[in-house]
Amino acid sequence: MTQDNTQNTWDAVDAYVTDLLAPADDALTAALAASDEAGLPKIAVAPNQGKLLHLLARIQGARTALEIGTLGGYSTIWLARALPKDGRLVSLEYDPAHAEVARLNLARAGLDAVAEVRTGAALDTLPTLEAEGVGPFDIVFIDADKRNNPRYVEWALRLTRPGSVIVVDNVVRGGSVVDADSDDEAIRGTREMFDLVARDPRLDATAVQTVGVKGYDGLLIARVVS
């Protein structure tokens, strides 16, 4: 069988999988529409990737979740729906305008009692979570500014427990992650994150490359083992 490795093919396969296994509903569709109307960047996770987060949280039996990087709350909806009614999700968003869109989207989805969006730089709000004794979190999803990925993983370790899962998005960077001489802060931060995860005995991890409507990228999945 001839393989057609083009963006059109990737898009078609994503559409096929999404239609069958991760179809949109009113709340998800409205969340994307509201994000577009507000002028947010079109960088939310793909539907099938949102479903993956949802399944990881359910497989984990998660009751608590932490998200670093909310954007318009699309991935937040997928994660929050995986939690029990008395579960708790805290999502951290740097941009106040983005956070407001996310709060409205979560309220529309009926998830505002489960999911909370906090505004501010995550490296400022994460210490606040620790001081408040929030957590430990059963699953952490990191999808924010890539240069700070190492710091976010360090904080994830402080706010989790053995058995927790940490997911980091956009770790392949179109293949540029292998460029050790890159001056791109996102690539440098991602490589530092990989080095940190590889050498930290508390983490057992792998990464997978992905293609689809979001192009060529990948994600890292780690389990806290001690």
Walkthrough of the structure:
With 226 residues, the protein is α/β, with parallel strands linked by helices. Helix content is 43%, strand content 20%. The protein has eight helices and seven strands, in the order αααβαβαβαβαβαββ. The protein has helices at residues 7-21, 26-37, 47-60, 74-80, 96-108, 122-132, 149-158, 185-199, and strands at residues 64-68, 88-93, 115-119, 139-142, 165-169, 203-212, 215-224. It has a seven-stranded mixed β-sheet, with helices on both faces. Helix 7 (149-158) runs parallel beside helix 8 (185-199). The model has no long low-confidence stretch (mean pLDDT 97).
Residue share in helices? 40-55%
Q: Compute the separation of the termini in Å.
A: 45 Å
Range of strand content:
15-25%
Instruction: Describe the largest sheet.
Output: 7 strands, mixed
Low-confidence stretches: none
Adjacency order of strands in the biggest sheet: 3-2-1-4-5-7-6
**How would you describe the shape?**
globular
What value does the average pLDDT take?
A: 97
Distinct helical segment count: 8
Gyration radius, to the nearest Å? 17 Å
Structural class determined from secondary elements = alpha/beta
| H and E order | HHHEHEHEHEHEHEE
- Count the E strands: 7
